[in-house]
């Protein structure tokens, strides 16, 4: 019995096997670009790993870009703050010099002019840019953050306490609600005397007691703290019960809201009983220019690694409030929002007092303000330096991670060149042999298989 095989079947079977040999050779040829993975079907397990590594590589690249941008931003900020602290150090020295009562009018005028130039330079440094962004403007980084008024305004005069005074009048934070008191408002009574108002509890103290009288208490007991019942001479009830705040009278920059009403002793809320008599008060002010901050207090975050977000650790900018602190006109208990320019305006007060040749004020409040302004910027610069160091460390870590990820991608997707060369030679040989064999065994016609 004979089996008949049609020529079509023979040809179809041969073509199918030849195509498979050609496909194997083509797939091997694809690997000539260095990758053995071009589609999931090439190796589903390896392809899954490859995709996962690619995601990690993209994340790593993004984090490296974030870190590089952040470091550049912080270097720009740090450079500006270094210049600021240098200027503030010089400003401190000029304040000490101006406090010398041997200076004549022309000497004070010259010092005041130099101080104004230094403050203007601080404002200019506050407007430092990185690319098209203002580095000290918070998230409002496309708006110039600092501007100085051309006209002078009436600004409230604060009594700035030195460290010894602050320790005494702040008292024990465990029992005294006026803890961390750094400033009081200066008032003039219709009795002709000067008083200092603790805006947190409404207590009034004489100028003599705040300036020197408290020292007698400390001489007797070095741990002594203020006792309002005996140390104060009266109390302004509207501030004591919290119905009145600094914000009722002053803007956050310290500018008095209505200077005309302050000229007369007509505000019934600003009265107290002193030595059995009702005394009316008005706020002491100083005529000076004002710096206004147009940024916000929001952080600019540049994420440096995956996982949970860390808003504080990922913040790369410095805001006006961090740079120039707060004072009695814009602190948390004032009722105003932070101005972002407190120390600049305090320094402008110092400059105004230099122009006025007020040596007594400069020798106490002036020097304390200059020290505080410098210390505030130095403290902020230190914090930024720590964050910059952290980002620098993360940059090194991300570089190491990138090497590992690249190695993983290479291991799972790269072609073994030596092995590929052998496989290609085998595939090409098999393909050529198939072509040669096919030419010999394929029937010339159907008659050859008829018997």
What letter string, H or E per element, gives the SSE order? HHHEEEEEHEEEHHEHHEEEEHHHH
Query: Helicity range of the residues?
Result: 40-55%
Largest sheet: 7 strands, antiparallel
Intertermini distance: 11 Å
CATH class of the largest domain: Mainly Alpha
What is the count of helical runs? 12
Low-confidence stretches: none
Q: Which of globular, elongated, flat, extended, rod-shaped describes the shape?
A: elongated
Structural class: alpha+beta
| CATH-level-2 architecture of the largest domain | Up-down Bundle
Number of domains: 2
Strand content: 5-15%
Question: How would you portray this structure in words?
Answer:
- The chain is of the alpha+beta class.
- It has two domains: 22-151 and 296-446, f41 fragment of flagellin, N-terminal domain (Up-down Bundle), CATH 1.20.1330; 153-288, no CATH class.
- The chain is 52% helix and 11% strand.
- It contains twelve helices and 13 strands.
- Strands 5, 6, 7, 8, 9, 10 and 11 form a seven-stranded antiparallel beta sheet that branches. A two-stranded antiparallel sheet has the order 1-2. It has a two-stranded antiparallel ribbon with strand order 3-13.
- The radius of gyration is 39 Å and the shape is elongated.
- The mean pLDDT is 85.
